[in-house]
Amino acid sequence: xxxxxxTAVLCAAAILLSACKIVETVPFVDxxxxxxVWYQISANEVSFNEGLVGxxxxxxxxEDGSVxxxxxxxxxxxxxxxxxxxxxxxxWDEETNSKLKVVFPGAPDLPYPNYLIVVLDEVDYQYAxxxxxxxxxxxxxxxTPQMSDNTYAMILGELxxxxxxxxxxxxxPQAVD
Length: 177
Known about the structure:
Layout: H1 2-19, H2 31-34, E1 36-44, E2 52-61, E3 67-75, E4 82-91, E5 99-103, E6 115-120, E7 127-131, E8 138-142, H3 149-162, E9 169-171
Antiparallel strand pairs: 1-2, 1-8, 1-9, 2-3, 3-4, 4-5, 5-6, 6-7, 7-8
């Protein structure tokens, strides 16, 4: 019975994946350079990040080549209750390193990569944009808590060229340095 259920879930996932458009990722990510703290500048609000502000993601490369993912945010205000979760990411596409599979406790272990890097400042790694194959999630990330309006507009332009829908992005309040 367990095998039948797992097969049904995998088949459903395959059907959904074949129905979604292919999101183009960046050509290459230098994983060690990508490590460190990223600030969420804006995001599609979904159940797991609803009402969170001051959101950061910290990536740490582990000895086995996987990545520890520590997500933190405060509920409703920068003085609100701290929410955090630690997960693990594995590189799905070792040719580009731009597709990863991230698993968090209590979340389903999906049979496909769910962390797709679609925009990246390839020179200085100062900003990145991450989504999933269904574009349900979308995160604009920066190495600093604030991003210039010009940089943000340029990123939105890049996403438009890629055909990524940005209409649900909500700016994320961050503490001012």
